[in-house]
Amino acid sequence: MKSTEEVHVLTPSRPSHQTSMAPIRTHLRIMRRVSPCVTLLCLLLVGYGWMDIAARRTGDGSEEWGYVEVRPKAHMFWWFYGSPNRVEDPSKPWPVVLWLQGGPGASGVGIGNFEEIGPLDTYLKPRESTWLQKADLLFVDNPVGTGYSFVEDSKLFVKTDEEAATDLCTLLMEIFNRNETLQKSPLYIVAESYGGKYAVTLALSVLKATEAGKLKLQLGGVALGDSWISPEDFVFSWAPLLKDVSRLDDNGVKKCDSVTEKIRQQLRSGQYTEATASWSELEGLISTISNSVDFYNFLLDSGMDPVSMEAGELTPGVSMKRYARYLSYLKTSASNAGDLDTLMNGSVKKKLQIIPANFTWGEQSDSVFSSLQGDFMKPRIEEVDELLAKGVNVTIYNGQLDLICATKGTEAWVEKLKWEGLETFLSMERTPLYCGTESATKGFKRSYKNLHFYWILGAGHFVPVDQPCVSLDMVTAITQSPAST
Ligand SMILES: *[C@@H]1O[C@H](CO)[C@@H](O)[C@H](O)[C@H]1NC(C)=O
Ligand SMILES: *[C@@H]1O[C@H](CO)[C@@H](O)[C@H](O)[C@H]1NC(C)=O
Ligand SMILES: *[C@@H]1O[C@H](CO)[C@@H](O)[C@H](O)[C@H]1NC(C)=O
Ligand SMILES: *[C@@H]1O[C@H](CO)[C@@H](O)[C@H](O)[C@H]1NC(C)=O
């Protein structure tokens, strides 16, 4: 981030707002008023000549975004939203949530922001359950090559979670080191799916960098939502779970067993790339014998998704794309309206002004996935243990209906932790969760010392989409947000 320029045609200032909806209206106004400036900027931003003005903010300062060149020719895109409810009270610090999407190669700026927790949905309508009510939100397209992030040389895609964490740490230095307000705000790393592997690796890098004085921020905690922390445990959970809910029979389980056994052998002998191929084979097999169960919600068929008709192949690239399509399926639109690709390659790209004109959102994401195939099946349980031992708050949450990162698999890896509090944690009773005015049980929670586990009922892989009310309560508790309810 070399400099920050105001976009002068935007609303220069706004009165303080009473409700969280007001800045969203401002945001919509911005989207309409931005075009004269775009024309001017286009003259300035030919090719990659934009790098000396790599960040922008809205006139009211509530949003800021930009590129950080995390390594030469590797450009990471970030988008920060300041909460309209922020209170400055030293005894109750205002939290910042960094959202890490999975994939690998799925865009947090697109999916997490517009489909899950950001202030606007894909129709650019306000989202009632936005987490912005409770915290500032920082979205990133991580690793480079994801979403709007890009590399100018294909050798620069990351090959390990560790490399991704190093790039993310560089990004955080650019954003936090020059802003004292943000340094007083604890950072909560909240991850989904593969993002959990980056989250724990990043948290350890952050602690190292802050101890060395290179990074100025306070780590508030880590939250692992339906996270791919132990691939082996998830792979082994699939067939028994599907058998228990009648989606597979004994014959199907036997077929799966031969592939899972192969995966176990490959992991034991360190053949991680081969294990990634077998993982893909197992997904394909399960898809066939279950008649296309949806991996993000085992009560559904993936065929229910009108745009994923070709998803039967389930190569890693294809299943990664299904991730975004699953969310599109939840919509009922016959046109392109509300389609995430159209939005991100259209009006959002225009608003942001700094995305290279010839670059399409998500165009390098398959390469991001393939580049990580040697690390994809490696577990990160030890990293969770390290964080617990260092006293970092670790929250795990899981949707009841998820298959790909099933609760059964999550519980299996949690039981492998070496953390001294584990035995007590496992023996404790759970607290039931309710939400709003509903009397139905929405989930359960168990906390001991710095480990917290939420079981979210009625949710698949995308917990904030399926259960927005209880998710918002959960993020309020995780971040100890001072926002009044
Ligand atoms: C976009 O344009 C730049 C400069 O003109 C070029 O170097 C780059 O390869 C192009 N990128 C794509 C994805 O076409
Ligand atoms: C620092 O962050 C705060 C909180 O989001 C923001 O209001 C402020 O404008 C930022 N300051 C600079 C210099 O970017
Ligand atoms: C993205 O938008 C550009 C400009 O409108 C268009 O030419 C291109 O085909 C779009 N790409 C995709 C993948 O939709
Ligand atoms: C961890 O979270 C709890 C609330 O759940 C809080 O009381 C405690 O201060 C947090 N610990 C750290 C080290 O942030």
Low-confidence spans: pLDDT under 50, at least 5 residues? Answer: 1-52, 305-320, 330-334
* Strand element count: 15
Which percent range fits the helix content? Answer: 25-40%
Q: What's the rounded overall pLDDT mean?
A: 85
The unique ligands bound to this protein are: 2-acetamido-2-deoxy-beta-D-glucopyranose
Instruction: State the end-to-end distance.
Output: 35 Å
> Beta-sheet strand percentage?
15-25%
Number of helices: 18
Overall structural class, as computed from helix and strand content, comes to: alpha/beta
> What best-fitting shape do the alpha-carbon axes yield?
globular
What Rg is obtained from the alpha carbons, in whole angstroms? 22 Å
Describe this structure in words.
- With 485 residues, this protein is of the alpha/beta class.
- It has a domain at 232-371.
- 40% of the residues lie in helices and 16% in strands.
- The protein has 18 helices and 15 strands.
- The strands form two sheets. Strands 1, 2, 3, 4, 5, 6, 7, 8, 9, 12, 13, 14 and 15 form a 13-stranded mixed beta sheet that branches.
- The radius of gyration is 22 Å and the shape is globular.
- Mean pLDDT is 85; it is low at 1-52, 305-320 and 330-334.
- The structure holds 2-acetamido-2-deoxy-beta-D-glucopyranose (4 copies).
- One 2-acetamido-2-deoxy-beta-D-glucopyranose (NAG) binds next to loops.
- The site of one 2-acetamido-2-deoxy-beta-D-glucopyranose has 5 residues, from loops.
